[in-house]
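Ticket #4471: structure output looks truncated?

Reporter: J.K.
Steps to reproduce: submitted the chain below (278 residues) through the standard prediction queue, then opened the result file.
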Amino acid sequence: MILKNPNPVPIYFQFMDANNEITCFNKKQDIELIRSVDGAIIVDISDWDRLGELSPVLRSNNIPLACIDHHIATDVIGEVQIVDRSVSSTGELIYDFLLDSKADFNRTIVNALYTSILTDTGSFRYSNTTAQTHLIAADLHNRGVDIKTIFSNVYENYTKNRYYLMGHLLVNMNFECNDRMVWYVVTRDLIKKTGVQQWEIEGLSELTRNISKVEISIMFTELDDGTKVSFRSKGNVPVNELAHQFGGGGHKFACGAMLNIDTDTATSVVVQKAKKLL
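Returned output as attached by the reporter:
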């Protein structure tokens, strides 16, 4: 079995891959390897673009595919699609599959499933958390999940550079609509200045969602070839349709889009559209 990821595994998730089995796809080195496989399972992605350089390789070689995901499907990926938007995470779907298959739930599997559910529910505080989510978490707890190790690695393992970046973003927040909306920009200069790695930016879109009165939070990330926009909502104002207007997608209250325009233009256009929601 080959485990490939479009991007490097962030430091705070590497504890689940003690044997370094998950490697980042390298087009020059791995293209023949991918072509040789009998089939592939795409996990937690139902959008071809999010597969990066893996996407054209999988599509052009007619490799049999299956997709397991819980996001709103923007593409049809594979002959078999197991996509259920009603569950909190892909971890729940895989848990059900393993349970039905009478698989051996070893410590690595239990920790990985719990981490998937924990992070995708925002530590069980997002609206996608259901009674079934808690029952699965309880079962994983009974199966020996190492909560201390997971929490320490996921939430207590940030670099000081990430906190430097967070400080800059908090100082430069922009409020709109009587403080019901906040937006901020991660520029390339700021990334260089603070020394963060690209993967460390993930999760910072949640930074301002817990501010009183804020209903919508938008983070813009300046890229070499455009702008990434991350939309977050407290749960009263759906933002997925806003993402769809810009060719993006995701959950009802947590989604994103990629814009092929400069960041100054992106902030102006997106903020004006977002104001109309309020």
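Triage note (M.O.): checked the attachment and the full token line is present. Residues 130 and 152 are 25 Å apart (CA to CA).
Status: closed, working as intended.
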